[in-house]
Amino acid sequence: MAEKLGITQPAYSRIEKGDTKMTTEKLEKIAQALDMTPEEIYEEDRKIVITHNHNKDTGSVFYNNFSSTEKDLYEKLLAEKDKQLQEKDQYIQDLRQTNQELKEEIRELKIRKTNF
After folding, report:
1. Are the CB atoms for 29 and 4 separated by under 8 Å?
2. In b/e form, how buried is each residue of 46-60, taking b as 16+ CB within 10 angstroms?
3. Which has more pLDDT, 71 or 57?
4. 1-65 has which CATH code?
5. What ranges do the domains of the chain cover?
6. What is the mean pLDDT of residues 81-98?
């Protein structure tokens, strides 16, 4: 797991023990390695996540000991992501509308030019 996260084994052990703060980036990488979503890891009722070390035939267990502050931060980050996605979608729609309007203006200009 440490290798998949791009960190040392001692650094990953500190995450497992709750000695190191969990970041969104680390959470996403862990979720990806476990074929899960970050939301699944963060579920209130999920207390233990079992991981498997693919280099050896052993597994490890870490407890989902995220603080309420970290959970709140995660939820705020998700809300912000959703907001940014909505803004992106609106921006794309606005650009499409502008593009359509510009195409229409170009057509009109071509018609005027041919009528001269």
Report:
1. yes
2. eeebebeeeeeeeee
3. 71
4. 1.10.260
5. 1-65, 67-116
6. 95
